[in-house]
Amino acid sequence: MKAKKDFPFLTLFIAAAASIVIFLPLRVYQYFEVLEPETGFYQLKDFSVYFMYAVMLFVSVFSIVTSLVNKKSLKNIDRFSVKGGAAVYAIAALGFVADACSHALKFIEVYNSYIYNFQQTVFEHLSKEGGGIFLAQALFAIVSALYFFALAAGTAAKKDVSSSLKFIALAPSLWAAMRLLHRFKSTISFTNVSDLLLELFAVVFAMMFFYAFAQTMSKVDKGESYWKIFAYGIPAGVFGIACFVPRAVLSVIGQGDLIPDGYAPEICDFTVAVMILAVLISKVSISAPNKKA
After folding, report:
1. 172-210 in b/e burial notation, b at 16+ Cβ within 10 A?
2. Is the pTM of this model over 0.85?
3. What integer is the mean pLDDT of 104-130?
4. Which of 92, 171, 97 has its CA nearest to residue 136?
5. How far is 170 from 140, CA to CA, in rounded Å?
6. How many whole angstroms separate alpha carbon 148 and alpha carbon 95?
7. Which residues lie below 8 Å from residue 127, measured CB to CB, with a gap of 6+?
8. What angle do CA 159, 278, 3 make, to 5 degrees?
9. pLDDT digits 0-9 by tens, 219-243
């Protein structure tokens, strides 16, 4: 009898690793040679720009198509160890805590910048300056942190608590939606600012991953969304790392002035990417080859 074909886990992870290896030096090169400091606009569009577009298109389309075509060969398993699973979820939770603190401070800054006048209320000021989005993002980040701390505690206790958390499982997706709204308020064209383009890709794929992750963990869709955590998780992880690591490298080596204003490295990009990729790796299952008598 012909054995059932395994899901191409290795192919997807090789594509992700190759994309990350290409992205990191490419982005550092662009900060030094291609992008305008502070604004992030292209000074020129050389080979690196079109190469970056090609890699972004490849990892996005390849992960979705490969996961969709092979979705019937997927089995929903979890090979996290007790300590490993708890650590991964706790790392994600800490990233959300950091983001909540950061955007709570941004909300306070916007609120304190309001000067009373008859032409604009404090609510209109907050709306114009994005204060409402900062507050919503901070609140959803707090709930997301609670969700992942609960998953970490459940994993450590060897208990499946995900079904009881379904009412807050959507918080990470809503958090990502707030990040998306904030970036869409920008009047800068994403085709002219690579940091904005990369971040939009990272946030959109993270948002879709978290939604599929919530459905899968809460078992509300009978496994129909399981393939989507690979389809969206691979690019979400790649783009999250591509956003964080080059910016962090520039900051560490004292070249932070090359990073555009408003695009400082955010730890949540890295912690979310690590969590996503770790979750996907924990789902790997390969059947033993059948031997003919």
Report:
1. bbbbbbbbbebbeeeeeebeebbbbbbbbbbbbbbbbbb
2. yes
3. 80
4. 171
5. 9
6. 10
7. none
8. 90
9. 887 778 889 999 999 999 999 999 9
